[in-house]
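task queued by scheduler; priority normal; single chain, no ligands, no partner chains; default sampling; output format set to structure tokens
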Amino acid sequence: TDILDNFGNSVIQTDFESYFLNNGALSNNASTKTKNYVVNYDFEAWLNPFSLDSWSIESVDGTGNIYSQVLQEKSETRGSSSETAVRYYVTKQSKGFLKTSLPIVADSEGRYFFGVWIKAENIGDKISIGIKNNTNFLTDIYTATNLNWNYVVKYFDASIADQITPVMIPETENVTFYIDDSFLGQGLAGANIEWNTTNGIVKTYTD
């Protein structure tokens, strides 16, 4: 059957794929998510209100200016189970980006995903979500179509010992995003077939 993703792209899914995805029979990496490789994945640990533990902002223009800032956020969190989120304020697009402080070493090869909850302040604001695998960036742009919390997922393939760094790269200037509860894991991000057949495409689902 044809499935339209949130970007209007038609995704073809066969009954064969549906059966094996639903029954977890494609491979070990076809099962739903396993362990979370991200340190401070829930953004609850802070060195101070302006410094997030185990995450950093990297400059990309050689000046050392990061053009953005993270702030500890306690009012705009994803739910009652989350005490702290990230307020990510950006002045220049694509000049600095939020990432894990250290790369994560893949301990087996296969399909991985990086997922994170994102909330924009303005419809149309854009941010790239994905990973840096060794020296290659694998990202797609998420464009906010509402002001709710949305779970954004990027799928990718990795080999043993690949150096994987989750990244969030702003694509709009003078904007604020709220970020909560990230996950880097193997396999599928959830049991929803429409979600998982779009491997390699950023998908959003409203909480």
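post-processing summary
- The chain is about 5% helix and 45% strand.
- Residues 170 and 177 are 9 Å apart (CA to CA).
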